[in-house]
Amino acid sequence: MSNSFGSRFRFTIFGQSHAPAIGVTIEGLPSGFAPDMEALGAFLARRAPGNGKYTTTRKEADVPEFIAGLADGHTCGATVTAVIRNTNARSGDYDELRRVPRPGHADYTAFVKYGPDRDVAGGGQFSGRLTAPLCVAGGLALQLLAREGVGIRARIVSIGGESEPAAIESLLAEVKAAGDSVGGVIECVCEGLPAGLGEPMFGGMENRIAQAVFAIPAVKGVEFGAGFQAGRMRGSENNDPFYFDETGPVRTRTNHHGGILGGITSGMPLVFRAAFKPTPSIGLEQDSVDLYSHENVKLTVKGRHDPCIVLRAVPCVEAAAAVAVYDALLESRC
Amino acid sequence: MSNSFGSRFRFTIFGQSHAPAIGVTIEGLPSGFAPDMEALGAFLARRAPGNGKYTTTRKEADVPEFIAGLADGHTCGATVTAVIRNTNARSGDYDELRRVPRPGHADYTAFVKYGPDRDVAGGGQFSGRLTAPLCVAGGLALQLLAREGVGIRARIVSIGGESEPAAIESLLAEVKAAGDSVGGVIECVCEGLPAGLGEPMFGGMENRIAQAVFAIPAVKGVEFGAGFQAGRMRGSENNDPFYFDETGPVRTRTNHHGGILGGITSGMPLVFRAAFKPTPSIGLEQDSVDLYSHENVKLTVKGRHDPCIVLRAVPCVEAAAAVAVYDALLESRC
Amino acid sequence: MSNSFGSRFRFTIFGQSHAPAIGVTIEGLPSGFAPDMEALGAFLARRAPGNGKYTTTRKEADVPEFIAGLADGHTCGATVTAVIRNTNARSGDYDELRRVPRPGHADYTAFVKYGPDRDVAGGGQFSGRLTAPLCVAGGLALQLLAREGVGIRARIVSIGGESEPAAIESLLAEVKAAGDSVGGVIECVCEGLPAGLGEPMFGGMENRIAQAVFAIPAVKGVEFGAGFQAGRMRGSENNDPFYFDETGPVRTRTNHHGGILGGITSGMPLVFRAAFKPTPSIGLEQDSVDLYSHENVKLTVKGRHDPCIVLRAVPCVEAAAAVAVYDALLESRC
Amino acid sequence: MSNSFGSRFRFTIFGQSHAPAIGVTIEGLPSGFAPDMEALGAFLARRAPGNGKYTTTRKEADVPEFIAGLADGHTCGATVTAVIRNTNARSGDYDELRRVPRPGHADYTAFVKYGPDRDVAGGGQFSGRLTAPLCVAGGLALQLLAREGVGIRARIVSIGGESEPAAIESLLAEVKAAGDSVGGVIECVCEGLPAGLGEPMFGGMENRIAQAVFAIPAVKGVEFGAGFQAGRMRGSENNDPFYFDETGPVRTRTNHHGGILGGITSGMPLVFRAAFKPTPSIGLEQDSVDLYSHENVKLTVKGRHDPCIVLRAVPCVEAAAAVAVYDALLESRC
Question: Backbone phi, then psi, for D152, in 5-degree steps?
């Protein structure tokens, strides 16, 4: 019931890891917009598997086909649907997964919620693969935002607590060799936003962006501006002094507020960070349960997996930010 | 446009600091529920001003009047509206506030969004006072959740980075004497939740709770379970092993997932933390701007204010958690 | 759960016939709008009881008090709440109503839906009195639409099948004397609407207006333009030929489409009609059931009632049209 | 923005007449439901073109492919997407349609709303072809409702004012020969509904069904129970007397209320009628305008078209009723 997001730019993500397809249905794209398909492909490629030595080797070219909503290559006011075919065949051999949930995964909660009929193949609808259609929606939003002078870029802040590239590289090698995984933190900056976006209380930019970013599997924390660090600060230190820039607009000398005051953009860069837990799929033996026999059992997850999902999650964070920001931008025009 | 929250338990908060009243309109309360008004009053009293030496001395008994939705003291299926009259008179002397926004407050962004007609008195609709109707909605949700065996309790984890009561007390005294303020962190635990609440992606429990908690002014970060710490951990450490409890249900030996996997409750305690920035209202001179003359000016905020809003925010965090959890509980029954 | 309407101009109606108050909570009013309270009062007076010889003698001055959302008499971007106090005291004597539902009323369905705890006094939340807050929301929307050159007026087309004023007068006298009631039809015309309002399929102007108009108790049918008559026509007759007006815009020579094509306004007057069933409260003995004893019983409804609700429903129809149209107008600007 | 409908059973329709595909994305289907694909195909065949001598000869087997949401033939809790490929190629020859809107069609309003970029081929998103995905969603809802003992059937009441089959046949032959078209009325009956579905005011069953039924192109009126006829009746005649059936439930001796009182189902059959205007596409010359040259011009619409859309609209009305009823049924369980 909640693969949907947004009010004016509203989309629903569909698909499972081993369904015929994954995709997204979008309402609210302006008429006359010709998506740059090459740029969209390049954006999707940044999250694609198989593009680095620390990512899974499952290899699929995630090329979206727009089956509805375009006419002569541009939007026409109709609902847009883009699909990405799943080329990896559904294998029948998921018996252990049906019985034994992987620690840290949604296997157990999906069983409780949907019963024995939930789709276990490849994680079903809880697969990280579902971030591909999020990146389709987000990639389109990024193109539309760019037209308005808004740029959104995310980057890895730390992996396993390390910030130095060399230290990260060494940590990843070690973790991969050990059959283990590691988490990290991604920071995202949105520049060029007009002041005045967002609504009070539940419609603030923090609320909207958090709602979007927590949709990315493995995100366990979101903070804006100084974030948790603000909990250690004094008002005299955290308050960002206002001043008039020579060029006109009001600015702040520091940006502890992360571009958001009272839920509404201030015109300063909107800055947030998302914490990712380590990929739950690891090669080591773990304790689990058999949901049918009600016994405690040992589980060793087989097959390919990313030792660090953070590497591929950077465009997903940009996409999540983009859909929230673009939706707020459209709303602000009513 | 977003003083509203929820889908099955849906409410809209209204009012401004110096309007005749603040309050809340709620749809979705079950018929035949007789709110415990005494318990609700006690809950509201926990966030009321004037109940401690480090809170503002503005003194108002926040007693909600239920003007609609009850018949003979119980709900009857009709929309419920509760109002709290504002007894502090609106003063005409807000000229400086109209011109000079307080750093760290929503004064500037409200001006950009609503223009010169925004309500500046006491912070208008951005006043922390609007958390009182949130506590009315949340207080009702807490009573309904208690009937289902769900308990929600928040507590202060740290203030200004200090966790020891004595250190906190000393820090508050120092900060108050200096005319400054300080931030902190609150942790909230929801116990007794059934497994299976929440929906995939944008409808996960993290998304919903974050959307509710960021409605509390001054919250700049939200994390679940291990949260940002998970970004430093390895999968073998962060993954919570499953086991069958003697009493039947599946449990996990640790709770780094904070009771949520794939957005859905696991049946383990749901745990989250919210970071609060320091109260932006401080007694010290600050840099700001005159929005009309376009000059940089000095501002000294007058009047009463809390040196640490965290002290009064504890029931607000419980209320935010309660409305999100109760809404998800109702949804799970469709 | 559905006392709410709209997406950009969104409101929730609350109250019961004998609750302390009825009212409405509105999000989405533009900032800086100073409602003309006198005009609003005059609009409400048109639906007020006691203003004619064929309307109930219950006499209440329905003067809304704006307890939130205004500052210095104008909107400020905050949620608006207006309340109308119920001055008629709740009487304890509703024992028969609790047991014996009135034919044609919601008494029975409210019992099924909300159980014995539903509010029976005066029809509870199903009372026609709840159209007063609809008229508050609609009255504000009408003022805002007038600024944009949009005018909405409804009128009685027929009562009991009669269209001539003298015939209607004579019918009403007869019906009143007989302790009976009679239905009718109201037509509403919206002029000055820009072309292009409304959305495809479920968001068309017919869908939106129908959703609003069916909220008025006793409405059992809604038709647009030629409506049911179109079911008897040929395409060559019903199709409205386009032409260019001297003044510029495209117009149609006839208006069988009622100003709506494909759900979207054409710029021609938007025309619809609503059919009202006769007031179910009549003075004659009727067959009903005792919900507790499960016996068939006779019921004679006591007390005041309107022999023809259509007389007072005219401003309600205008209000329903106004909220739907104004909401669509705001949406069209995103 | 409003190809979406529903709250618990929520779907979005996509596609245009000549896009690669049309289809529907659905959230809220229960897990473990195995759609009867044969029954769904038979249901879709009832609205398919080319199945009678008075329907267009465009021939397409509307077989939906479920690209997401099923696992091993049953739902699994994931979003469902079904697509129907359009096999008729997009022709480049729409120059006249781009310039000259067809009277009675959405051509002109689509131009105003979406500008020159709207999709004109085959009516674009306003094509009656978009009722096929409505029938997919409705067909699934019908199967789910049947499990609960709810049956929904529609039938033609009249065409061009004629009710007798022979008179209808003769009228259709005449109209077809003349290159003209004709409208009609369809009645729909929902049996087996539990009492208590629907919500007050804007969430009543009339509001919901009207919102769904007006999504079918050409519908210009909707009435429930006695409908417009109720406007001619007296209360003593229109009020349906309650009685206890031998089998237990409360029933009414007549059903002028059409199974709905106060917006809520009474347990009596839910009955409504929809008025269809004549198909606007006719073979006769009509007056229109050239949107670019701003001249009044003559238009003769070429190509296949139905002389009477009512013949194929029967399952569409059932589908619209089914999605509204099933959504209300799920809501009633919260």
Answer: -130, 125
